[in-house]
Amino acid sequence: MKVKVLNFFRDFWKQRSIQMFVLIGIAFIVVFNYIPMIGILMAFKNYNIVTGIKGLFTSEWVGFKYFIDFYKGYNFGDLIRNTLVISILKLVFTFPLPILLALIVNEIKVPAIKKLVQTSSYLPYFISWVIVTGFVQIFMNRNGIVNTLMISASRIDQPISFLTESKYFLPIAIISSCWKDTGWWAILFLASITGIDPELYEAARIDGAGRLQCIRFITMPGIRSTVTVVLILALGNLLGGGLSGSNFEQCYLLGNAGNAAVSDIIQTYVMDVGLTKGHYSYAAAVGLCQSVVSVTLVMISNAVSRKVTGEGLF
User: Fold this and answer.
1) Which of 14, 59, 210, 233 would disulfide-bridge 45, Cβ 3.0–4.6 Å?
2) Could you give the CA distance from residue 308 to residue 298 in angstroms, rounded to a whole number?
3) CB atoms near residue 289 (< 10 Å)
4) Sign of dihedral through CA atoms 226, 230, 231, 232?
5) What is the pLDDT of residues 182-191, one digit of tens each?
6) Cβ pair 304, 219 in contact under 8 A
7) Cα dist. 128→123, 132, 133, 181 in Å?
8) CB atoms near residue 248 (< 10 Å)
9) pLDDT digits (tens, 9 = 90+) for 192-216
């Protein structure tokens, strides 16, 4: 045992420059992910922000009161429905698109064009949702580019209120999300494709296989493990937004009184009752419900993946 410990510290010291980066990453996770989990206690107590951190331990214990209040709330069904609808639609559209883009880019043989397509496709990822929302408003408001072009083409007589009508909110949210995130996730699948042995393609071409057959029988099986992992992560974050990270920014920035019927989701509700109205314990309970569901989805999707494909996260 002592020999193993000594060997561990000896190897650690030899790799100290690399291990420092690992320790910094671990410290970041502990400080910003694990320590804040103490705040979960807030969901089970009648917390008052005036009491500070001490109040997390000294406040009155109310158990599942706030969870029950959320379940019995008049808008519980609407919040769940809106959250699921936008999340599922974004998953359906944003998950296949990066795979398709990666396959297309991989088939481009001219290096200059390939780099141009890659760069132009993933640059939108680095634009914040605040700026993206500004673009959307410039294009889609009543005096925006889309209405101007449609009126000029005699497609409509009066400007359409794209940003204040509920029926247009979901298409706008999904299209903007696809534009922003598809290129970034395509990089991951492209990296997985480059790891496939080129000799497999050469052997397939010698046997007479075309491009589509190479994609079907070599590329897709070769990136199956990556697709599986990304799908599990996307399902785990389904209520949060899937591959696009978070529904909150879109719903908060594009949401208004006109489209509230479809733009009010769990995350914006937590923001409203927590920070705006000061019901911190209630907001914590609602947020914890979403987190529990997300963890459950990760476990279920991982178990199904292992059973069907034999691959998973753990």
Assistant:
1) 59
2) 15
3) 19
4) positive
5) 888 898 899 8
6) no
7) 11, 6, 9, 11
8) 18
9) 998 888 888 888 888 888 888 888 8
